[in-house]
Amino acid sequence: DADVTQTPRNRITKTGKRIMLECSQTKGHDRMYWYRQDPGLGLRLIYYSFDVKDINKGEISDGYSVSRQAQAKFSLSLESAIPNQTALYFCATSETRRGTGGELFFGEGSRLTVL
Amino acid sequence: AQSVTQLGSHVSVSEGALVLLRCNYSSSVPPYLFWYVQYPNQGLQLLLKYTTGATLVKGINGFEAEFKKSETSFHLTKPSAHMSDAAEYFCAETGGTSYGKLTFGQGTILTVHP
User: Fold this and answer.
1) For residues A3 and B49, what is the distance between their CA atoms, to the nearest angstrom?
2) How far does Cα B30 stand from its chain's mean position?
3) In CA terms, which of A60, B38, B58, B96 is 20 to 30 Å from B103?
4) What is the pLDDT of residues B50-67, one digit of tens each?
């Protein structure tokens, strides 16, 4: 089983619908992240959480919200999806330990298409 | 704000040829630097990372990268390309103690020809 699991792996939805992408991890890491990947743009940080009570906006948080339900669970919501949110979304984790450099461990991605 | 520039969105090499993927970072504080690889329909996998110490870093699958502070570069190389190296490669940095808040480059798609 994967250490970082994302559901769903693929979703097609319509403009205006609410969508939730879920992420769970078994690595025991305290930090979790949501990134978005678009062709030619690399990965961009949407939100990150350093522990259950700590939620922070990344560089492209508009139109998104998150919830850290437990140390192991971090979900991303699109309250009213729009076509330019069509992308590949990645959840990632890292641990707070000096010397690691904050290496990220990624899930396999959730491909979202908004029609 | 930090930025990472990967020179060349597409690189094509012949099997057995040298692979060179270029990356320049912007962080003014000592950076942590990473190279990740993404195979089709998969997540990102760490190839190698530089945190402190030796500036020449060796990673998996025969890849290595050299941290050059004077050039703000962290280029990825492999002496001899293999067909299985075809993938997209991402350079990333996190400045100072911003653990995990990686800033990624735009990615370089590597194609390997027989």
Assistant:
1) 20
2) 17
3) B58
4) 988 888 999 999 999 999
